[in-house]
């Protein structure tokens, strides 16, 4: 399939975010000299090293870390979910807002990581941003479908399942999920009002 075809299939913003993540991983692999596992030195420079953020003022790491991955399986799983979930959300709220959800949720997860994990912690991954995307999708569905209780349960179960997995940054997941849920509530309400106007001419 051509690049244009892939962009059409997965959405312009979703596929662009995918390409950025893959490009960053290629750089990581080259710097590490290993395409399967990234060295801690590279992760400390490109990911989020809390000590560097707080002591050296490397605040840019709060953004770059959401495009950095620790190994081939890490990026593989994350990119699969980005393509699957990102294109769904992009189809609902559009490409610019999809990018906004990714960045704001990822930043929230990284800020929570900064303040709740030890200073010597090094973290990386798109998981916080992805939890934001999924949280937004879940809550939009709950608001529009009139089943917020079910949506909240689904969000809690998703977080619980992922939290018990080894080597998982729970704080990044939590921060991303909560921000995504808040964004989902806002857009869910807007979408529901729009549907009411279309159906009944009022809201």
UniProtKB/TrEMBL annotation:
Transmembrane region(s): 15-38, 58-77, 98-117, 123-143, 150-165, 171-188
Keywords: Membrane, Transmembrane, Transmembrane helix
Topological type in the membrane: Multi-pass membrane protein
GO cellular component, one term: membrane
Domain Peptidase S54 rhomboid stretches: 59-189
Compartments reported by the entry: Membrane
UniProt keyword Transport present: no
InterPro entries: Peptidase_S54_rhomboid_dom, Rhomboid-like_sf, Rhomboid_protease_S54
Superkingdom of the source species: Archaea
Keyword Metal-binding set for record: no
Any GO molecular function: serine-type endopeptidase activity
Name recorded for this polypeptide: Integral membrane protein rhomboid-like protein
Organism per entry: Thermococcus cleftensis (strain DSM 27260 / KACC 17922 / CL1)
């Amino acid at each position: 399939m051509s690049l244009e075809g892939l962009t059409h299939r997965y959405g312009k913003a979703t596929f662009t975010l995918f390409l950025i993540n893959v490009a960053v991983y290629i750089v990581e692999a080259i710097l590490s000299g290993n395409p399967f596992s990234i060295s801690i030195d590279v992760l400390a420079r490109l990911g989020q090293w809390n000590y560097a953020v707080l002591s050296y003022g490397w605040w840019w790491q709060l953004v770059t870390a959401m495009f950095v991955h620790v190994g081939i399986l890490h990026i593989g799983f994350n990119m699969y979910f980005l393509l699957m979930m990102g294109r769904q959300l992009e189809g609902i709220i559009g490409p610019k807002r999809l990018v906004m959800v990714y960045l704001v949720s990822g930043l929230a997860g990284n800020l929570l990581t900064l303040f709740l994990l030890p200073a010597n912690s090094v973290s990386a991954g798109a998981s916080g941003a992805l939890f934001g995307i999924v949280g937004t999708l879940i809550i939009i569905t709950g608001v529009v479908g009139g089943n917020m209780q079910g949506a909240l349960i689904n969000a809690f179960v998703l977080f619980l399942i992922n939290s018990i997995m080894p080597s998982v940054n729970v704080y990044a997941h939590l921060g991303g999920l909560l921000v995504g849920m808040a964004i989902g509530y806002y857009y869910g309400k807007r979408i529901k009002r729009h549907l009411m106007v279309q159906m009944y001419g009022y809201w």
